[in-house]
Amino acid sequence: MADPKGFLTTPRREWPRRPVEERVRDWDEVYVPGGLLPIISTQADRCMDCGVPFCHEACPLGNLIPEWNDLVSREDWRAAAERLHATNNFPEFTGRLCPAPCEAGCVLAINQPAVTIKNVECAIADKAWEEGFAQAAPPDRLSGLTVAVIGSGPTGLAAAQQLTRAGHTVAVYERDDRIGGLMRYGIPEFKMERRHLERRVEQMRAEGTRFRTSTTVGRDVDAAELRSRYDAVVIATGATAWRELPVPGRELAGIHQAMEYLPLANHVCEGDLERSPLSAEGRHVVIVGGGDTGADCLGTAVRERAASVTQLDIYRRPGAERDEENEPWPTYPKLYRLSPAHEEAGALRTAPAADADARLFAASTLRFEGDEEGRVRGLHLVEVDAARKPVPGTRRTLPADMVLLALGFSGPDQGDGSIAQLGLELEPRGTIARGPDFATNVPGVFAAGDAARGQSLIVWAIAEGRAVAAAVDRFLTGGTSRLPAPIGPYDRPMSV
User: Fold this and answer.
1) Rounded to whole angstroms, what are the CA distances from 138 to 85, 180, 369, 462?
2) What pLDDT score does 495 carry?
3) Confidence (pLDDT) at 479
4) In angstroms, rounded to a whole number, what is the distance separating the alpha carbons of residues 242 and 302?
5) What Enzyme Commission number(s) does the record list for this chain (predicted)?
6) Which of 52, 202, 332, 425 has its CA 20 to 30 A from that of 364?
7) What is the CA radius of gyration of the chain?
8) Strands 308-313 and 284-288
9) Measured between alpha carbons, how far is 261 from 388 in angstroms, rounded to an integer?
10) pLDDT computed for residue 245 by the predictor
11) What is the pLDDT of residue 353?
């Protein structure tokens, strides 16, 4: 470590955010441009270079965190970028979108604020692009073997890049009109500007990866026919089958799934639309679901000038400190966290009936009520206890002429017919079944990411993409591969 006393002398400082009043008027990233570089070297100095770095175990990619922390503290950006990219294809994505389980596993976090690992990662990735360290890496020679990757989210892109660099000819099939999957149309621009995605796609094109957009496998292309044309197929379509809320009044107009709402706002940011057909402007919005997708809806509705926005979370408000008995270090704890969207909603007081950050905790939806025209006008809820049982005398009604359901996803969408056309076996929970080598029951077809693992984090998605690429490479080359495999299909986050 560059400063052996850094963790004692330097307090934790995070990437500063732009003022709320400024950032809610645009769709740019919420952070102060250039705000990381003045502080990041001393923040990297806080890393203790532990003998057993649990941040490695907490991160499924196995990022070499102490190594690149030390290099950043010495301002050796080229070497830091090399070490970072050795385990992560897209560190600027994880540096902005990952909730940082590595920080929960930081040894310093036992009794102090953790090292700002996520910020250091982001600074290295951005510096790599600025200084020209993130060059395309085409293979020296081609293998003559072909792979089709279905889905262009983080899993599909990571798998495609790894396989292309190994010398295989890879084509990525994406049903949307642009590459990126949920990173393109599910993640709001204020969390990650699309320029970061675009330059990675261009890097992959320069390396030889081919992209087929506006192509739904199962409809535009028969999945079985696709399998016959390629030496291997990777299914990385994500878990896009959203969960429903079967309560009275669900049929009313004005109630939408989050993934019906968010993509339209992103199409506005792309310049495809002047105004979203589902704009929250002037509406009383209630978001059902307390996760990251719900927060994305919250930040989007605030920028669309909603009359009010309230977010319902069925869980009780978590504490500010780790529960050492049930969630001991180094597991990722459930804590009260204030995302940029919640900070904005609190500052602007978007939800008079809710707590300071627009969330109503321990709230369960009972039913919706509508007007004579069949449009939603209100949401009836009740407070619940830890067992999710209603608390007597706590029923209330919120005004709502727009409701967004952000309840998560159950598995891959089967509506396109690709799973049936290939004859893939499914797990009882609806995900694609696979063996220890990521292979499905169909020879030459592999499944990775949320489609097989279930809904997870972007860092797990990239790790799955890298691992399935190694499995496919072994399949194609007869049992050996030089590609790294950071996880297995049955690996799970650290837990008690």
Assistant:
1) 15, 21, 58, 20
2) 84
3) 85
4) 23
5) 1.4.1.13
6) 332
7) 23
8) parallel
9) 28
10) 98
11) 78
Residue with tokens 């496998």: 217
**What CA–CA distances, in Å, run from 49 to 2, 5, 274?**
10, 11, 50
Q: Which two tokens stand for residue 293?
A: 């997708």
Q: What is the 3-state secondary structure (H, E, C) of the chain?
A: CCCCCHHHHCCCCCCCECCHHHHCCCCCCCECCCCCHHHHHHHHCCCCCCCCCHHHHHCCCCCCHHHHHHHHHCCCHHHHHHHHHCCCCCHHHHHHHCCCHHHHCCHHHHCCCCCCHHHHHHHHHHHHHHHCCCCCCCCCCCCCCEEEEECCCHHHHHHHHHHHHCCCEEEEECCCCCCCCHHHHCCCCCCCCHHHHHHHHHHHHHHCCEEECCCCECCCECHHHHHHHCCEEEECCCCCEECCCCCCCCCCECEEEHHHHHHHHHHHHHCCCCCCCCCCCCCEEEEECCCHHHHHHHHHHHHCCCCEEEEEECCCCCCCCCCCCCCCCCCCCCCCCCCHHHHHHHHHCCCCCCCCCCEEECEEEEEEEECCCCEEEEEEEEEECCCCCECCCCCEEEECCEEEECCCEEECCCCCCHHHHHCCCECCCCCECCCCCCECCCCCEEECCHHHHCCCCHHHHHHHHHHHHHHHHHHHHCCCCCCCCCCCCCCCCCCC
The rounded distance, in Å, linking the Cα atoms of 470 and 491 is 16
Residue 227: Cβ within 10 Å count? 19
The segments of the chain whose pLDDT lies below 70 read 1, 355
Q: Which two tokens stand for residue 428?
A: 């009882």
Lay out the sheet containing 255-257: strands in order across: 255-257, 402-405, 284-288, 308-313, 359-361
Structure tokens at 247: 């309560």
DSSP-derived pairing of the beta strands 232-235 and 146-150: parallel
Average pLDDT, the chain: 96
d(CA 95, CA 129): 14
Contact 184, 172 (CB under 8 A): no
User: Which residues fall within 8 angstroms of residue 81, CB to CB, at 6 or more apart?
Assistant: 124, 125, 127, 128, 131, 133, 134
CA dist 349 → 18, 78, 130, 287, 363 (Å): 18, 44, 38, 15, 19
Evaluated on CA atoms 414, 156, 334, 13, the torsion sign reads negative
